[in-house]
Amino acid sequence: MASAVTCSATDLLPHLGGSANATAAAEFICGRFTAVSEYLTNTTYAVDNTYLLFSAYLVFAMQLGFAMLCAGSVRAKNTMNIMLTNVLDAAAGGLSYYLFGFAFAFGAPSNGFIGKHFFGLKEFPSPSFDYSYFLYQWAFAIAAAGITSGSIAERTQFVAYLIYSSFLTGFVYPIVSHWFWSGDGWACASKTDGNLLFGSGVIDFAGSGVVHMVGGIAGLWGAFIEGPRIGRFDRTGRSVALRGHSASLVVLGTFLLWFGWYGFNPGSFVTILKSYNDSSKGAYYGQWSAIGRTAVTTTLAGCTAALTTLFSKRLLVGHWNVIDVCNGLLGGFAAITSGCAVVEPWAAIVCGFIAAWVLIGLNKLAVKLKYDDPLEAAQLHGGCGSWGIIFTGLFAKKAYVNEVYPGFPDRPYGLFMGGGGKLLGAQIIQILVIIGWVSVTMGPLFYLLHKFKLLRICREDEEAGMDLTRHGGFAYLYHDEDEGSSMHGFKMTRIEPTNTSTPDNHNSRSVVV
Predict the structure, then answer these.
(1) Where is this region: Disordered (predicted)?
(2) Mind spelling out the 3-state secondary structure of 284-334?
(3) In the predicted model, is pLDDT for residue 366 greater than 80?
């Protein structure tokens, strides 16, 4: 926020001489200064809120990316189901976050564990928060729920999605965000009372832990309790690939997520009109520069992870796989999200390189343990998110840490940057408490859903596909047909629900590709 312009007629009067009109002139001039000051203050609020709203729109657009990625990663017979669950995450999450979630996360003043104000946005807006901030944080909350839905895709009852999504966005996720992002949170790096964990607090700038680990660990428990999809492992325990039906949708979803990440990471600054008053760099340098740097580090980490995955998988399996590259790219983004604002661009390349190998290694471990996650969500978001938290404790730069988290010039920073191991210790604490909290909340929830037979669909429905058995018909059907030539192609037909065994040719549309 820009400093207010102040003016006192008493201070100005001696400079105007002793004329009879001096007092009136001083009051007039100060009145004009006050008007200008109020205008600049209002403009700053307007610019910052517009910036935050635009960032919220970008993060919300990631829901479309999740939807496309999920749709392409599952088999065609479950397309309508996975698309509906993505809509449900946003809709159910919107109400639960409005009623409870935001209050639990940011309801200050409160204790270090949970917020206790702003239920149903009561007393909103306030000097601390405006409506744009709620919208931005809601978009983050539903992103965590979207991650979980990918882990349990193709075998989960619809009612289970509704229950877990509301619980995750209304309670589990908000508690974690309170711990690390609220000024009252016990591990927040910008804690208002200055009593920082290990003298530094946890630096999780945009949510490698708060968002990605929470969604990934929740998905891990859901997929573990449900068990693998039918056919994922044969009777001998050998892995059988159940490939998604559309690489095109996967690539489209990946690019949409990439685009949205520029709201996710740079947008986490919340404001843009802020000068750092760094005389060594001049007036051109301010928070707007840090926002640009954050976008660069985000880009470099994702690009490095994508290329590392491309060549690594070529050496390991012998071919170039676009699905693996897309997942590697997203793994790099998930990792850099924690430290994107406090590391140098070259360090982001290191982050992305290691994130790719973390994802490859965890995928191999998942196969050995017969763990089935159709979108690799637990490995990608949970595993790469954990690496990103550790990476921040190693590579956070002192100057950037003091810019983003001002007020404590002697706080610890990255171990490899000469800042000691206290920040790394705080980061490790974050990983442990997130794993513990999500496990003791989401684990029992999924177990109870399983015990009450509300979690997994029956075998017959799973084999036939949920689009047909639960949603009235297939989104589309792929099959080979001979169209009277030597070329065999895919024919895509939209199937309408019918009471006869023969589709009505007048009510279906087909395109030969």
Answers:
(1) 494-513
(2) CCEHHHHHHHHHHHHHHHHHHHHHHHHHHHHHHHCCCCHHHHHHHHHHHHH
(3) yes
Give the number of other CB atoms < 10 A from CB of residue 11.
Answer: 11
Give the pair of three-digit tokens for residue 366: 């998942």
In the prediction, which pLDDT does 512 show? 36
Under 8 Å between Cβ of 398 and 419: yes
Give the N- to C-terminal CA distance of the chain in Å, as an integer: 56
H/E stretch holding 89: helix 79-96
CA distance 122 to 100: 11
Instruction: Look up the pTM and report it.
Output: 0.87
Q: What is the Cα 249 distance to its own chain's centre? A: 20
Say what the pLDDT of residue 5 is: 56
131-151 vs 79-96: helix crossing angle, rounded to 10: 140
pLDDT band at residue 125 using 50, 70 and 90 as cut-offs: confident
Q: Which two tokens stand for residue 297?
A: 């580090």
Q: For residue 278, is it left (φ>0), alpha (ψ between -120 and 50) or beta?
A: beta
In angstroms, the CA 333 to CA 327 distance is 10
Dist CA 187 CA 200 (whole Å): 9
The predicted structure's pLDDT at residue 60: 97
Residue-range domains of the chain with CATH: 36-276+294-471 (1.10.3430.10)
Strand partners, 492: 478, 511
Residue 483's SS3 state is coil
Contact of 192 with 405, CB cutoff 8 Å: no
Q: How far apart are CA 429 and CA 91, in angstroms?
A: 33
**Structure-block tokens of residue 507:** 């009510």
| Residue 247: half-sphere exposure toward Cβ, Cα within 13 Å | 8
Alpha-carbon distance values, 198 to 113, 186, 189, 420 (Å): 18, 11, 10, 11
Give the span between the Cα atoms of 495 and 76, in whole angstroms: 12
